[in-house]
Design brief:
The complex is a heterodimer. Helices cover 42% and strands 18% of the residues of chain A. Chain A is built from 24 helices and 17 strands. In chain A, the strands form three sheets. Chain A has an eight-stranded mixed β-sheet with strand order 15-16-14-13-12-11-10-17, sandwiched between helices. The relative contact order of chain A is 0.07. Chain B is an all-alpha fold. In chain B, helix 1 (3-17) packs across helix 2 (39-53) and helix 1 (3-17) packs across helix 4 (68-80). The radius of gyration of chain B is 12 Å and the shape is globular. In chain B, 28% of the residues are buried. Classes of the chains: A alpha/beta, B mainly alpha. The A-B interface holds A 16, 47-49, 52-53, 56, 82, 84-85, 242-243, 245-247, 249, 253-254 and B 16-17, 19, 39-40, 43-44, 47-48, 51, 58-59, 62-63.
Chain lengths: 630, 82
């Protein structure tokens, strides 16, 4: 399955003809729609020659300076062994992951110099990312039988060499360094003893891979775990000693397509192109049978039957992806009520209604539904993966939306999870707490958009049940306040940046009136979304900082904030509020912020506008917001 | 398969591997005679020819190929041994 990338369809017989057609199109200058055509051609389990042909086509497209939605990346390759064969495979495979690649390779055997020498040809080509690949044979880990001490220093030396390459690259590579884990040898030295004898090549490679993993944990490098991939397919098939001797090919030629896809999926993830949403069909995908015909009692799910357990596993995998930060959606040809029944009534469902951010059950074609789902979630169609057991549905979506990833599924649902995950569309290169909440955030946002589309603005805001929580700066929230102060660009009136130490000082500064604003509604908690600082100057307060997350635009939060500031100002006998707009390249959107809040213009100098508000004359507006003060 | 049939099939594979619009090879054709047939594409060519005929070339055999005819002979011998 892995060798021929069976999560993709087999290459069509007329592939070469399609390539020729596309080349003619590109040559004629008709560049619109070429993105989609390239991606459509990439979405097959292409062999070496097809990857080469597609890569050439992609390169000539890139050279025509097109307007492409794909991320253009120059990738440098450093390593032992023959990498030239891999370059076209990388370029063609990159298309599956929304990457339009250009690949540059350092001369054979010059990795260290290419990485460290400022005058190297490799550096002159300025790759944005660099992949370092190594083979245990060129790292000198296999030459001779040695004692434990010598073996240990061999590993140290290999690690130091890789480290030197890494440090050299870090000095100038802008995007990041990818480093491949080293594939261990198949041949045993002692036999089963190898795993515990540090002088066996097997143990030395394992020790070296632990070093590499350590660098990855420290965030210094992104790992491409080729050693694991080799174990997936079996070292026996992966390694080809004859080809190593002939041409320094580090692995068998038939794994070039797999190797290339593994690298580009990691690169895609770093470049932010990993997919965000898994759209699930229902009948015969999440349960056996057809809910509309079989009813809740008739569908096959769990309950100790082999078929039922297989479908349950598919649900569990989807659920785990969700917990990892992938958004789930449903797209099913069913009546809405019927489709929801198992979620509401079947005792064995692993997925709940709450797990699904957008639920589409209707009789419209699936491609149209996928577009709508992407629109609701405010993500690109190229961020979707679509899981459907029905080949006709898969074909329709592939035809209409080639940028949607549609895994080709085997007949047996027991293999759906493996096939879906083997596709690598949800590759992640980092994981933080917030990621777990991402699916929840998307779901909340989707629910808000659905509600918005069905009501007038006032009705919508009312039904959101917005709760706005005000609090002065405090130690507990300091880190988040600093984050907002330093990262907000658009809804930021003055773009003043403060260090965490300065924010800490602000907490206790009697000359400052500070507010941290939290927002939640019936769909979810958005956390802290606005930061306010006013300077107390006798009978007037002057605004120093006013920023807000763009996620909460249109909910009248600014008005609620002003009301709160006025309330506090009145309590201190303040008569005037002064606001300032300091223009920046990114904050045009708040040019009229104070005007909209009822301030009068009171001056302008060098583009900076000043505004005043008569506190006494201010009328509290009627806002669809519940205020909580802490 | 006859030598002629083997030759024709090698020609088809080469057209695909070397991404050519058209190609006519004979038994005495060498890498010098074909555009794009270099040491890099040679590796792919060998791999795809092996796959097309269902045979495996030994390193020694590959190193001894002087022209297309040598390939044909080697393939013919392997197919006969089946």
């Amino acid at each position: 399955m892995l060798e021929s990338l069976e999560w993709l369809q087999p290459t069509p017989a007329d592939f070469r003809l399609q390539i020729k057609d596309l080349r003619a199109t590109i040559a004629s200058g008709e560049l619109d729609g070429v993105d989609a055509q390239l991606q459509a051609l990439a979405n097959y389990g292409l062999g070496l020659s097809q990857l080469e042909q597609l890569a050439k086509t992609a390169r000539s497209y890139a050279e025509a300076s097109p307007k492409t939605a794909m991320r253009q990346v120059r990738l440098g390759l450093l390593g032992s062994g023959t990498l030239d064969v891999i370059a076209p495979a990388l370029i063609a495979s990159g298309l599956r992951h929304n990457l339009l690649l250009d690949v540059v390779i350092a001369d054979y055997g010059t990795s260290l110099q290419a990485a460290c020498d400022p005058t190297s040809e490799f550096r002159a080509k300025n790759p944005e990312f660099v992949l370092v690949s190594s083979d245990f044979r060129t790292l000198d880990l296999d030459r001779s039988f040695m004692g434990e001490a010598e073996a240990s220093s061999k590993v140290q030396f290999a690690a130091q060499t890789l480290r030197a390459i890494l440090d050299g690259l870090k000095g100038w590579v802008q995007g990041g360094v990818l480093m491949q884990t080293v594939v261990p040898p198949l041949e045993p030295l002692f036999g089963s003893l190898d795993v515990s004898q540090s002088q066996s090549c097997f143990a030395m490679v394992a020790a070296l891979n632990r070093e590499i993993a350590g660098w990855a944990q420290a965030g210094e490098v992104t790992v491409v775990d080729i050693a694991r991939a080799a174990s997936w397919v079996g070292l026996e098939r992966w390694d080809d000693p004859a080809r190593w001797h002939l041409a320094k090919m580090p692995f068998a030629m038939n794994f070039v397509p797999l190797y290339a896809d593994l690298v580009v999926r990691v690169l895609g993830a770093i470049a932010g192109k990993a997919r965000k949403c898994l759209v699930l069909d229902l009948d015969n995908t999440l349960w056996g049978g057809v809910i509309g015909d079989d009813g809740v009692e008739g569908i096959v799910l769990g309950q100790g039957s082999a078929g039922g357990e297989a479908f349950l596993e598919i649900q569990r995998v989807a659920k785990r992806l969700r917990q990892r930060g992938v958004v789930l959606a449903v797209c099913s040809k069913n009546e809405q009520d019927a489709a929801l029944k198992p979620f509401r009534e079947h005792p064995e469902m692993a997925l709940t209604e709450d797990d699904i951010a957008v639920f589409h059950a209707n009789w419209t074609d699936k491609a149209a539904n996928l577009r709508a789902i992407a629109e609701t979630l405010q993500i690109g169609v190229d961020a979707l993966v679509f899981l459907d057991d029905n080949p006709a549905e898969r074909a329709q979506v592939r035809r209409e939306l080639p940028m949607v990833a549609v895994p080709e599924l085997p007949e047996d649902p027991a293999l759906y999870p493996r096939t879906l995950l083997a596709g690598g569309w949800f590759e992640a290169v980092s994981f933080v707490e917030e990621d777990s909440r991402r699916a929840d955030d998307y779901r909340a946002q989707a629910k808000r958009r659905e509600l918005e589309s069905t009501s007038d603005v006032a009705g919508y805001l009312q039904s959101l049940e917005i709760v706005c929580t005000f609090k002065a700066f405090d130690a507990v929230s300091r880190a988040r306040i600093s984050q907002l102060v330093n990262k907000s660009n658009q809804f930021n009136l003055t773009t003043r940046r403060y260090t965490e130490a300065q924010i800490a000082a602000a907490e206790a500064d009697p000359a400052l009136f500070t507010l941290q604003v939290r927002l939640s509604d019936r769909f979810g908690d958005s956390g802290m979304i606005s930061v306010i600082i006013f300077r107390r100057q006798g009978s007037r307060w002057v605004n120093d900082t006013w920023l807000m997350s763009c996620r909460v635009l249109g909910r009248r939060v600014e008005e609620a904030v002003l009301a709160e500031v006025v309330r506090a100002a009145r309590q201190e006998g303040v008569t005037e509020l002064v606001g300032q707009y300091i223009p920046s390249p990114k904050n045009r959107m708040v040019e009229k912020h104070f005007e909209k809040l009822g301030f009068t213009p009171s001056g302008e100098a060098d583009g900076v506008t000043t505004w005043t508000l008569d506190v006494g004359a201010y009328d509290y507006p009627d806002l669809p917001v519940t205020i909580v003060r802490e | 398969m006859t030598r002629g049939e083997i030759l024709a099939k090698i020609q088809d594979v080469m057209i695909d591997v070397l991404d050519l619009d058209d190609l006519h090879i004979e038994e005495k054709t060498t890498a010098q005679d074909v555009e794009g047939w270099d040491s890099l594409s040679h590796l792919r060519l060998i791999t795809e020819i092996e796959a097309a005929f269902g045979v495996t070339f030994l390193t020694g055999e590959i190193e001894r190929f002087k022209d297309v005819g040598d390939m044909v002979s080697t393939i013919e011998a392997k197919l006969q041994r089946r």
